[in-house]
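Onboarding guide, step 5: your first structure request.
Type a short instruction followed by the sequence, for example:

Predict the 3D structure of this protein.
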Amino acid sequence: MVSQNDHVIYQRYFKQYNANTLFSDQSLTKSICSLLIGIAINKGYLTSVDEKLVDIFPELKNDTDKRKQSITIRQVMNQASGLYHEDLKSMLGIYNFLKLPDPSGYVLKAPLVTEPGKEWHYNNAASHLLSAIITKVTHMDTKTFATKYLFTPLNITKIEWARMQDGYYDGSGLKSISLQSADLLKIGSLLLHGGVYDHIQIVPKKWVKLIFNPDVFYNADWGFKNSTYALCYYHTTYKGTQITYGMGWGGQFMIIIPSLNAVIVANENIADANAVKQSIAFTTRIFPAIFHELDKSEKP
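The system replies with structure tokens like these:
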């Protein structure tokens, strides 16, 4: 799906999929949790993105590694917390993490992998803590909080969201939130318009500005070439144009291009044996073609 100047200009589904299909958005779950963190800060449930995990998980005070007491929400969202991460080199590492009876507790108790804030390492395990944080500070489960403050104002009604073994809704994307493509496009459009939808400020403008212009960021290992990562979003410059995007495994994309007033959404089948190739094909072949048409339409 592609929208420009608030109009859907292209929409196409393939094979058995259609506009009613709920797609597993994979790590776009993190990008949605990022918006929920911003809303929670605005409503006073959190002090700031630099609030320390120890203030939310007091058990960290008793950990023998006192470095854990310095870890912030921002570092978790930046994939730079230093906390335990699952083995991404094989699917077995992910399966083993998903089998844990208390995945959030395990992440907090496990030895640090690196010094907090020093190194970027993609970390689904620690990202799940975002859901635990939202639940703990708001006293609402993550899906309830999201429905009340994000989905209902956007008129998003069809949602599937799996829980992890610890009872928290997945914050990582390993079990994933599932949405219709048109609803994912709404979220991208919400960001494009500074957090406003239908004249209502849903996500704080200050938070959206920080997402687009993070003051702390890290070089990312994948996605579009020369991407950086911060607050669960990627950034890159494509042919001189700034783009901000969320990305999920297997070809899930939500791309915002402010200068072209455009949003692009793609969902692909994660069960397909070609899932990784799908993602590469999108970044190297499909997106360039779409960008060319969008860029051409904006020029006199």
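Each response can be followed by summary notes, for example: The chain has one domain: 2-298.
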